[in-house]
Design brief:
Elements (H helix, E strand, L loop, with lengths): L22 H9 L8 E4 L6 E4 L9 E4 L21 E10 L2 E8 L2 H18 L11
Antiparallel strand pairs: 1-2, 3-5, 4-5
Amino acid sequence: MLNCRRCGKLATRTLPRRSWTCGDCIAAAKDHPERQPHLVGVECAGCGRIEYVRPARITQCDVYFCAGRWGGCKRTPTHRLPAVPSDSIGVRESSAAGTLDGYTVRLATPDEMASVRRAQALLEAALGGDLDDDDWVN
C-alpha cells in the first residue's frame, strides 16, 4: 500500500507506482495558485471571476468574459461587449483563456468591410426596410 506524498492518506488499492498523490490533494493544488506559481490569472470583465491558466494557453484579446452567451458574460446578463466603431470589426475568440472567451475590436480590412456590407444588404432585404446604424447588431 502507498501513502499520499502530500497528506499521508492511505491508498485504497495496490498501485504499481513508487509515489502517489490523492485526488483531494490534486484538486487543492489546482485551486490554489500559490502552489502553482507558473499560472496566470485572467479576470472576466463581466463578473470578475478569475481563471488561472498557463501563459501559453492565453490568446491576446481586449476583453475576456465567461463563455456561453454571445453578447457578454453568461453570469452577468447586464454585461455587454464593447461597441464597435463603423470602420472596425469585433472578433470573438472561443476559449481564449481557459474557459473564458476573448473579444477584440480591430480595424477591418477592405475585404471584411465588403463582407459586412453584403451581410447588411441581405439583412435589409430579409427585413424589407432600411437599417440604421443602431439596428445593426455587432
